[in-house]
Amino acid sequence: MPESLIDLSGLRVGAEALLAAVLETCGQPFWIVDHEDVIRFANPAAATALGYERTEDLAGRARHATIHHRHVDGTVFPARECPLLRPLETGDAVHSELDWFVRRDGSMLPVSYVSVALETPEGRGAVVAFTDMEERRRAADEHAALRRVATLVAEAVSPSELSVAVVAEVGGLLDADLAGMIRYEADGTVTAVATWAAVGQHPEVRGPWSLEGDRLATAIAQTARAAREDDWACVAGPIAAFVRERLGIDSSVGSPVVVEGRVWGALFVHSTRGAPLPADTEDRLAEFTELVATAISNSEARTEVARLANEQAALRRVATLVARGVPPSDLFDAVAEEVAALLGADLAGMIRYENDDTATPVATWAANWHSEVVSPLALLTGAGQLAETIAKTRRPARSDGEDGVAGTVAASIRKALDIRSSVGSPIVVQGRIWGALFVHATHAEPLPPDTENRLQHFTELVATAIANSETRTEVERLAKEQTGLRRVATQVARKAPSREVFAAVGEEIERLLHVENTTILRYGGDKTATVVAASSESDLVVGDNISLEGESVSARVLRTRRPARLDDYSRASGEFGTRLREGGVRSAVGAPIVVEGRLWGAIIASTRQDEPLPTEVEFRVAEFTELLATAISNVQAWADLAASRARIVTAADEERRRVVRDLHDGAQQRLVHTVVVLKLAEREFVRNSEQVPILVREALEHAQRATDELRELSHGILPEALTHGGLDAGLHELASRTQVPIDLDVCVDRLPATIEATAYFVVAEALTNVAKHARARKAAVSARVEDDTLRVEVRDDGIGGARTGGSGLVGLRDRLAALGGRLRVHSPDGRGTLVVAHIPLHNRFAD
After folding, report:
1. How many angstroms separate the CA atoms of 423 and 390, rounded?
2. Angstrom distance (rounded) from CA 93 to CA 82
3. Which of 71, 507, 547, 686 sees the fewest Cβ atoms within 10 Å?
4. What phi, psi does 128 have (nearest 5°)?
5. Do 390 and 396 form a contact (C-beta atoms < 8 A)?
6. Stated pTM of the model
7. For residue range 786-812, what is the model confidence (pLDDT) as tens digits?
């Protein structure tokens, strides 16, 4: 090895051999010319760059005539002007950053070079070293094109203008014959958005185009990746036929335009020269499609921002009307106009769904507003399958063909107005579907896919306005209703007579519900009703007893015990229905009056107007029935209380008379006799008569009888066993004196005296009835405390059928009622009798 890397002598290689090896293997292209400018040597890199297979093909050729004889624009480059001759002539070195050499095939090669003089024995020659600038030049051109496109993107030109510029740039840059851009449509077709031709005009490309049989555009759409087609001859479908026969294309390369994750379209270049496009075409196209995607995304974003701004402005205008509480008709007209203008519709309208499965137009709007349009549009707005679909599904719906209407009238209107596309959205108010908002288009393009969603923003505002309006109306109605109810409640609280309360209710219902007639009925047990109150306009008179056979509101209430209505009284039958129908009544509603769980009667409100009474009027009438029921219940309670008090007073008076009579006829007489006999004994004692002992014994005998009679009398009030031993002892003593065997089950301790006495008298009365009437073989008595209530039962196995209205049981009910208790008697024929008393243990009366 040599001692130094620059010590070549140690290699023992000749200078010529070393130089030849270096020149052959050097990667820098260069050649050497002699003093006559003839190429004497060219290395392989130079030969390859200039399109020659061998270096020998260049040797011996005149340099200028072979490599440098033509400008890039095709004009002749005279030898005298050639800068590469200067080193030969002057010995000066020559540098150039960009010049053009001619390749063997005649194409031009951009280069940079340096040429220096080389002194030889024959004369001054030169060495020329050059660099292939084609890749650099192509990159520069590509960057320039990208900058121009990027500038357009930054300037926010329209998508159509940008598309035209892009196809022209890529077509020229990639040396294509034709170029174009397509957009994928929602229906599976494609539309050309821009075309370019290197020579002349690009043939017209009408669309949209079906992708049937296509391979290139379909592959790009499915994979979101670049693809090529180098043999259109074997591709089927209308696109392939047009490409082959009309455009004469042999090879095509396409790259997807992906906007926010979706394949928006594709950019294509085509060749008609019979050879495939270069292998790097896909990659070079991708740089442009990314810029296009950015521009489209920005454009769509700007469009969306503008759309949202317009939409928000329209919504604000509508919201302002809602906040101002304008009349519904004005709001509906404004909404129809706003949505039509915002969504680019030609016609718009709003409907309200009715209870009879029909729809009523409440607003219409047309871009070309004239009388010939308004009337058909009003009909169309509520017609057709579209409105029915919305009503059933409660969701937006659309029709882009002839299937959006049902019936010949609606179809003919649609045809007359030239409607091509319709979209509707439901108006849902507080959970119920109130109506729908529609827009219609007469142009060929269907309404945009997002029309349904955008309509919903307006239907929500309309729903809010309707809800607010209904709420205000409802508040006003409730205020008036509560005022009326308070007036009636005041009369009820004042314990006004029933007839006054009935008359007040009738007046309030007529005033609040705007009806002509009100009638209050009391139901009888034989499917009849008695009129207890009637308005002055009614054909019914207080006291009338009317049969409820047949069809009428009062008959329906009797059958169902629920509010009812009859909107067509021409169908009414029976005595009651006929009388109202003959009196001119067209519709009526009724609500039951339920007093303490039983159906007492009904309120009937009727009208002679053609329009039926509004929905839910029967339930508003029902609010008054509760007050009526309270009034009736109070009257009954007052009557029952008065009767109970009278019975208690009578019973107390009778008991006092009995006690007085028993004292007078029994103990009092015995005591009087005792006093008389003792006075006789005193007189005989003075006389020392033998009759004294006899008289004293007789007096003692009368005193003892008086004592016994007083004891018996006190037992009739409260037995001693009860007083001293409690309910258990009292009932055992009572059972022992009953002729029927008694099974006792008493599980109570001492209770307040009033409760013990009441329970005792319940059992005593029940056992008395058992002994007198039941013909029972045995009976059972139980008493126990459950849930702070004393429950007393007396059961026998007698013949049953006991009368519950007897004076004894009525008296017990009164006594129990005074303690807040209740009595129940169950006595089916042949199955014995059960008497049950419930007595609360803690109440102010028991204490």
Report:
1. 10
2. 13
3. 686
4. -120, 120
5. yes
6. 0.39
7. 988 999 999 999 999 888 777 677 777
